[in-house]
Amino acid sequence: MDIDVRGPRFGAALTTVVLAVVLITGSFWLLAWQTLAFALGAAGGVGRSPYGWLFRKAVRPRIGPPTEFESPEPPRFAQAVGLVFAGVGLAGFGLGPDWLGLAATGAALAAAFLNAAFGYCLGCEMYLLVRRVTVRAQ
Question: Among residues 18, 14, 47, 12, which one has the least CA distance to residue 33?
Fold first, then answer.
């Protein structure tokens, strides 16, 4: 079943704010929260993430029904990519070196910002590229 395209973009906007605060404060625990949000989105799809739930319950009823839909697989893959970067960031902040935490968090922030500000989902594009390559290889 296809999903409302506004949901992942809303999630990306919240993710952008959270990751920016992580970079400013160096908060391991806030990055742990974002890692959990990515994990839930990767495991169950963006609708199962905390930001997807918030969008469904608080935002979507106020902005009306969707007019555009997309396949759930690319955003789910993007959540998995975010999970990897957030996990590396947690390792950097928790075990060191700090620059690793900053770099991985910054990369995740850049991808989230692209989606939130411009509607360009880098992880989704990676998914489509992987699909094209694997289909040709078969």
Answer: 18
